[in-house]
C-alpha cells in the first residue's frame, strides 16, 4: 500500500538504520531531526530498517506505489472538465539516518524496481533527493561533502540546495554472450555510490567484520592485519574512452592519448595490484582521503592504483592519505575514467560499497565499471 499524503506537501521519507555505526540513529532522530521537522511543519513517514538488506527490499516492493501517490498528490485537476493532468516529473525526498550501506540499499532497491518501467521513461522521470545524516561507520558520502554532524546535514536539507549524486554500474556478461562473442551485452549486477575495490582494501573491509565491535577502529585493525601479511593480487585493468591521469610534475590532470588501437583500450594497467580503488567519493571516512580529486557529482570515476609494492611503501601511502598527499608518491597512480574493465587470472573477490562479489578468472569473468549515462538511472541528488 502506498503512502497517503498527510498534508498538501508529500511527506519526507525518513529511513533509520538503528544498527549503523554506534547505534545512535534513533537517538539522533528523537533529539535532533524530529523536533526540527516538526518546527518546520514538514510531514514525514518513518521507515526503520530492521536488518541488512531490509531497506533495499522495502523500496523494491514499495517504490512504485509511493511514486503513484506522489504523482497523484501533484496532479492538476481541471474543475471545468474534471480532467487530470499528471506531472512529467516528481521529486521524492528521502532522509537517511545511517551509513553509506543504507544509501546503497535504497538506490539499488529503487532502480531495480523502476528501471525500464513507466516510472522511468521519456514521458515521466522521477527524481530522488537524499539527505544523509551521518550515523554509520565510515560515512563516506557525508565526509566527502564536508558534512560535520547531524545538525549540519539537517541545516543543509532545510537550506534546499542539491547536487547530482552519480551512480557507478558494475556489470558482467553472461557465459552465452561471452561464448557467442556478443558485444555490449553487459548485465548490471549492482549500482554503487561509494567505492569498488580489489586487493588490500577489499581484504581489509572483508576482515573488518571480525572487529565490528571496535567501530571505526575495526578498519585500522583489519588493515594492519593485511599489511602484516601483504599479498599481491593478479589482474589487469583496461580503460576505455576518455582517461585523465594525474601528473605529479605539473600537479594537474592530463588527458591520456589512445595507446592501443587494436584492442580499443585507451590504457592498460598490468598488475599485480597491491591496492586498487574505483570510487565516486573523495573520502571513505574521516581522516582517510584516498581519492582527493573525486567529485560525486561529475561523470568520472576516480581510480587509485598501487601496483606490486611492499609493506613500507604501502604504509607511506596510508600515512599521507589524511590530506590526500599520497598521490604525489612515485608508486601511486591516479586516474579519472568513464569505463573500466577488470580481469583476473584466478577467482577472486571484489568489494562493492561494503558488499562482496566473486570474480571468476579469465576473460569470461570480466567486470565492467562505468558511469551509466542513462537519464532514467541517474535520477539521484544529494543536499549540500
TrEMBL record:
> What are the record keywords, sorted?
ATP-binding, Kinase, Nucleotide-binding, Transferase
Q: Which PANTHER family match?
A: DAGKC DOMAIN-CONTAINING PROTEIN, SPHINGOSINE KINASE
Q: Which SUPFAM superfamilies match?
A: NAD kinase/diacylglycerol kinase-like (SSF111331)
Name of this chain's protein: DAGKc domain-containing protein
Domain DAGKc: where? 7-174
Q: Name one GO biological process term.
A: sphingosine biosynthetic process
Name the domain of life this protein comes from. Eukaryota
One cellular-component annotation, GO: cytoplasm
Which GO molecular function annotation, any one, does this entry have? lipid kinase activity
InterPro entries listed in its UniProt record: ATP-NAD_kinase_N, Diacylglycerol_kinase_cat_dom, Lipid_Phosphate_FormReg, NAD/diacylglycerol_kinase_sf, YegS/DAGK_C
Amino acid at each position: 500500500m502506498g503512502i497517503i499524503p498527510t498534508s498538501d506537501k508529500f511527506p519526507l521519507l525518513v529511513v533509520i538504520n538503528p544498527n549503523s555505526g554506534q547505534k545512535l540513529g534513533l537517538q539522533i532522530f528523537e533529539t535532533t531531526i524530529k523536533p526540527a521537522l516538526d518546527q518546520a511543519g514538514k510531514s514525514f513517514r518513518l521507515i526503520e530498517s530492521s536488518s541488512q538488506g531490509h531497506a533495499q527490499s522495502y523500496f523494491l516492493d514499495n517504490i512504485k506505489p509511493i511514486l503513484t501517490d506522489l504523482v497523484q498528490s501533484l496532479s492538476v485537476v481541471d474543475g471545468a472538465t474534471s480532467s487530470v493532468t499528471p506531472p512529467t516529473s516528481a521529486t521524492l525526498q528521502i532522509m537517511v539516518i545511517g551509513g553509506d550501506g543504507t544509501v546503497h540499499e535504497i538506490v539499488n532497491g529503487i532502480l531495480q524496481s523502476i528501471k525500464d518501467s513507466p516510472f522511468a521513461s521519456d514521458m515521466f522521470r522521477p527524481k530522488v533527493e537524499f539527505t544523509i545524516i551521518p550515523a554509520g561507520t565510515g560515512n563516506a558520502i557525508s565526509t566527502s561533502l564536508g558534512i560535520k554532524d547531524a545538525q549540519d546535514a539537517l541545516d543543509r536539507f532545510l537550506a534546499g540546495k542539491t547536487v547530482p549524486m552519480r551512480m557507478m554500474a558494475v556489470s558482467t556478461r553472461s557465459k552465452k554472450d561471452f561464448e557467442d562473442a556478443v558485444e555490449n551485452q553487459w548485465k548490471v549486477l549492482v549500482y554503487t555510490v561509494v567505492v569498488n575495490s580489489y586487493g588490500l582494501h577489499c581484504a581489509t573491509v572483508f576482515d573488518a567484520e571480525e572487529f565490528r565491535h571496535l567501530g571505526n577502529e575495526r578498519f585500522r585493525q583489519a588493515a594492519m592485519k593485511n599489511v602484516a601479511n601483504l599479498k599481491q593480487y593478479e589482474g589487469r585493468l583496461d580503460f576505455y574512452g576518455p582517461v585523465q591521469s594525474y601528473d605529479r610534475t605539473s600537479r594537474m590532470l592530463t588527458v591520456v592519448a589512445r595507446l592501443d588501437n587494436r584492442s580499443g583500450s585507451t590504457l592498460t594497467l598490468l598488475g599485480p595490484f597491491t591496492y586498487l580503488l574505483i570510487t565516486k567519493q573523495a573520502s571513505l571516512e574521516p581522516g582517510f582521503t584516498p581519492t582527493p580529486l573525486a567529485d560525486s557529482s561529475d561523470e568520472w570515476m576516480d581510480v587509485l592504483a598501487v601496483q606490486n609494492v611492499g609493506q613500507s611503501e604501502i604504509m607511506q601511502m596510508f600515512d599521507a592519505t589524511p590530506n590526500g598527499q599520497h598521490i604525489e608518491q612515485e608508486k601511486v597512480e591516479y586516474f579519472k575514467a568513464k569505463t573500466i574493465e577488470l580481469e583476473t587470472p584466478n577467482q577472486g573477490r571484489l568489494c562493492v560499497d561494503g558488499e562482496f562479489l566473486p570474480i571468476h578468472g579469465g576473460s569470461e569473468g570480466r567486470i565492467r565499471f562505468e558511469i551509466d549515462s542513462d537519464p532514467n538511472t541517474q535520477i539521484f541528488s544529494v543536499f549540500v
